[in-house]
Amino acid sequence: MITLCGFAVSNYFNIVKQVLLEKQIPYNEERAMTRSKDEAVLSASPLGKVPFIRTPQGPLCETPVILDYLEAQFPAHPLLPDDAYAAAKVRELSTFINLHLELVARELYPAVFFGGSISDAHKEQNRKQLVRNIEGFKRLVKFAPYVAGDSFTLADCVAYNNLPLVGMASKAAFGEDLLLGAGVDYKPYIKLVGERASSQQVAAERKAEMARPKD
User: Fold this and answer.
1) How many domains does the chain have?
2) What digits encode the pLDDT tens for the residues 107-122?
3) Which of 24, 79, 80, 133 is in Cβ range 3.0-4.6 Å of 87 for a Cys bridge?
């Protein structure tokens, strides 16, 4: 049995959860917080990052590694095409969204979501990088109707859980959703994917986690 470790506000935790749900893999959850100093966490995720999983073979951390393991270990209900090149294109898009959109926008999160601060110079540098990277994203994304084409793939689990955060963070920081401003109308796509049972479960459990009293 797979044990998914983390907490339901984490978008990367929710990416892995959505993959588990879409692939119909039985799993348990274990609550773990980012930057935990608990040895039980560090022995599985050396930097205390979430998510990580516990498998019958041992622990795994880093979301792309976890997703590759799940796809290889549980081939039923595949989220990657059979063709090697097509599968690589799905991974390419997933990686681009994670590294060049979400992780750039993540620099804004402390200021826009948690009451922190960011210098004007850093904010402007971040805006320029996001604008440039969004132009690159437009060259890869399909929205036909899914991000990689006509089939729901692993890249949709990544996009569904990340694109709204990029939009919200940029809107809060710059007064404009930079995705929409660049002509990336992702809202109908989010609505489409949001109708899936996996999306509804992820959203409900994220909402419940956000309402949870602080430890």
Assistant:
1) 2
2) 999 999 988 888 999 9
3) 80
